[in-house]
Amino acid sequence: MADFETVVVETDLLILGGGMAACGAAVEAAYWAMQNGLKVTLVDKAAVDRSGAVAMGLSAINQYVGLKDGANTVKDYVDYVRNDLMGITREDLVANIARHVDSTVHLFEKWGLPIWKDENGNYVHEGRWQLMINGESYKVVVAEAAKNALLQSGVGQIFERVFIVGPLMDGERCAGAVGFSVRENKFYIFKSKATLVAMGGAVHVFKPRSSGEGMGRAWYPPWNSGSSAYFTIKAGAEMTCQEVRFIPVRFKDAYGPVGAWFLLFKSRATNSQGGNYMIERKDELDKWGPYGRVKPVPANLRNYLGMLDVMEGKGPIYMRTEEAIQQIAETYKGDEKAYKKKMKELESEAWEDFLDMTISQALLWASTNVQPEEQSSEIAAAEPYFIGSHSGASGAWVSGPEDLQTDETRSEYFWGYAHMSTVKGLFCAGDASGASSHKFSSGSHAEGRIAAKAAIKFIVDNNTMPALDPVALEALKAEILKPLDTYEQHKNATTDPEINPNYIKPRMFMFRLQKIMDEYAGGITAQFTTNEALLKKALDLLAFLKEDSAKLAAANHHELMRCWENVHRMWQAEAHVRTILFREETRWPGYYYRADKPKIDEEKWHVFANCRFDPQSTTWEMKARPILHIFASQPKEPALASV
Ligand code: SFD
Ligand code: AMP
Q1: Which of 100, 204, 250, 419 is an active site residue?
Q2: Residue 643 above 50 pLDDT?
Q3: CA distance 624 to 45
Q4: In this model, does residue 436 exceed pLDDT 80?
């Protein structure tokens, strides 16, 4: 077996991931751990300063409710999220995040994040819920606070460049995690009393638009590879909304976000004939139950109207940047100097939007001589992603907070500790927790704080270290390192290490997965369309892929990580296919279309579609859970300590 030293780390709370949710968790956990004499350990596969979705920075904070100035209520936010997700949302979870998120944003500002202000000192809004920031160092600022909280208090330790593979269990209770260093020959066993999963969503499960030399360019970060979903599924946690993939419309090929253009610059998108699909196809919205006529139009329906144009041969679709900039500058036309100044300002804002968060889009503009004030840019629907924090919803099914439950919701949505999955001691936040969409960077951080506080309470109530079986741990170590052994054993059978009858390299394995998902589960090639027969075929092919995963081979640490990333993606794929199959309707056209069930069915499918993999019997169970409402009165004020 590959010669790896086993390192055992014992801790009270184990935080997995170092992104927005994990950094929020670290700040809050440090406070409560200090009060209770507990230890906290954070593990990230990368370096916390620049890991996760916010690695390149962001240009906006997409969730700010503005409770203090009375701009909005928590219920307003919940209504917005429910409508955007076509009625499928856990109101208690969304409300819990919404009532805490402003304090997180205020912390960001206190830690040094520049938020745009107007001449009166008020935040500059991109849209109703979104604030503009100078965010190229957003992640560094948030990471610094997390590191300070853990390390300066003495309660915490941080492991960077350690890849977490999967859960450790003591019966029904989560007992920690296992992983390996991506740089040294070290195999890690983390034993914990509670574990908080915050390892992001999943990218590259579907074949991406970017291929060949562009491979790896995606909207969401390619290094978020489904580890959260794999971890919770393998621990036996109930999962929710696994059918709700997110397909963002983005500037084509470099994936620059569109929010600032639609909301701040008030831009239109038009087809090659100059038609505006949002106006020309308005009647289509009536077909989608009560959700077609809500404001704003749900993200998937906005996508869908544009897709109908493309399918009818009216593409490309253009973001009319030149028109939007001209229209804003127009009001300054009488004063030549003021007009010129405004144009310069708008031009630099346009570039900064991308330089803050999707630098490659600015590079693509520069290399193709695009001047946004003079010409439009093409936009297109991206490949599907799995992400519980943006306009998707997939993740673990977690308990809501006690104080927001009604007599009706309590038995369905509450089981002791806020944001704990159905597995004892296993908490989730950010992309890892489902049915609470539109939390974005700020809400993920707030949810991390909420979950960490609850996890510490769980530890105080259950203050025993779970037991682990040493024989099972040795077997797990052998299984995890096996790709290195497979490579060593067979590498001389051929002259090209990429091609070998005895093994498969992770890159080729990923291509197989992506082909299955693209063609059978409604990827780009299939125009996001699928049906029962295609989905069943996808499951057959995924079963073969799972068999082949035993033959994965890794030439080095990096490839070992790539092997396990792709195993993680494969499990996310399976949960997705099973759940689209289960939900016999089309609810989110623009995300996916089930051609054999082409309509929304409010009567039967106004429910959560949940699934659970039973690690003992290795079978999947699908179940519908009811959608219940919580708003009899306004939720109370925040209860977190680190505000
Ligand atoms: O414009 C392991 N997001 C936006 N949010 C905003 O608030 N404003 C925006 O402007 C946003 N936009 C945007 C966004 C994302 C991206 C990529 C772009 C633009 C280009 C969304 C937010 O970024 C997102 O909602 C949050 O970051 C989600 O937080 P979290 O914590 O759930 O995920 P993460 O931050 O990606 O962190 C994941 C961490 O896990 C680590 N990890 N560690 C150990 N072992 C493993 N096996 C691991 N697998 C992963 C990662 O390294 C990372 O630390 S806009 O488009 O809307
Ligand atoms: P995006 O850049 O698409 O991720 O969007 C950033 C934010 O703006 C998110 O909160 C989106 O939901 C919101 N958004 C983007 N486009 C629109 C639109 N056309 N109408 C309403 N909200 C939008």
Answers
A1: 250
A2: no
A3: 35
A4: yes
Query: Is residue 421 a contact partner of residue 396, using CB atoms and an 8 Å limit?
Result: yes
pLDDT, average across residues 580-588: 98
Residue 533 Cα to ligand 1 midpoint, Å, equals 34
CA–CA gap between residue 373 and residue 478 (Å, rounded): 58
Distances (CA, A) of 30 to 150, 154, 192, 529, 547: 6, 9, 16, 46, 43
Contacts of 223 (CB under 8 A, 6+ apart): 45, 46, 51, 52, 203, 565
The token duo for 595 is: 């051609």
Ligand nearest to the CA of 298: 2
Distance between CA atoms of 91 and 627, rounded to whole angstroms? 9
Encode pLDDT of 463-477 as tens digits: 999 999 999 999 999
Number of neighbours of residue 365 by Cβ within 10 angstroms: 21
Distance 445 CA to ligand 1 centre (A): 10
SS3 433: strand
Question: What is the rounded CA–CA span in Å between residue 274 and residue 314?
Answer: 9
Give the integer Cα–Cα distance in Å for 21 and 449: 8
Question: Rounded to whole angstroms, what are the CA distances from 123 to 91, 109, 116, 295, 588?
Answer: 27, 11, 6, 23, 33
Asked if 169 contacts 178 with a C-beta cutoff of 8 angstroms, the reply is no
The confidence band for 235, taking pLDDT boundaries of 50, 70 and 90, is: very high
CA distances from 331 to 265, 326, 380, 563, 620 (A): 14, 9, 31, 56, 60
| CA–CA dist 60, 440 (Å, integer) | 10
390 is catalytic: yes
Best probe residue, ligand 1, of 441, 449, 562 (max atoms within 8 Å of C-beta):
441
pLDDT higher than threshold 80 for residue 256:
yes
Active-site annotation holder among 51, 59, 62, 442: 62
- How far the first Cα of the chain sits from its last, in Å, is 49
Mutual angle of helices 74-84 and 91-110, in 10-degree steps: 120
Strand bridging mode 317-319 / 377-381: antiparallel
- The DSSP output letter for 71 is S
Question: Which CA distances in Å does 355 have to 218, 359, 360, 623?
Answer: 16, 5, 8, 44
3-class secondary-structure state, position 523: coil
- The mean predicted confidence, pLDDT, of the chain is 96
Nearest atom in ligand 1 to 260's CA: 1
| For ligand 2, atom 13: residue with the closest CA | 259
Q: Which two tokens stand for residue 630?
A: 């919580």
543-553 CB burial, b ≥16 within 10 A, e <16: eebeeebebbb
Radius of gyration of the chain, Cα coordinates, nearest whole angstrom: 24
Q: Is 32 a catalytic residue?
A: no
181 alpha carbon – ligand 1 mean position (Å): 22
Which domains are seen in the chain, by residue range?
Answer: 249-381 (3.90.700.10), 470-620 (1.20.58.100)
Q: Does the annotation mark 250 as catalytic?
A: yes
- Which member of 28, 92, 126, 383 is catalytic? 126
Measured in whole angstroms, how far is the alpha carbon of residue 236 from the centre of its chain?
Answer: 20
Q: Where are the beta strands (DSSP E) in 87-207?
A: 131-132, 156-159, 162-170, 173-181, 186-191, 194-197
Of 142, 165, 192, give the one whose Cα is nearest residue 19.
142
Instruction: With CA atoms as reference, report the closest residue to 27 among 141, 135, 160.
Output: 141
Query: How distant, in Å, are the alpha carbons of 108, 125, 327, 339, 424 from that of 115?
Result: 9, 10, 25, 25, 39
Task: Tell me the β-bridge partners of 14.
Answer: 41, 195
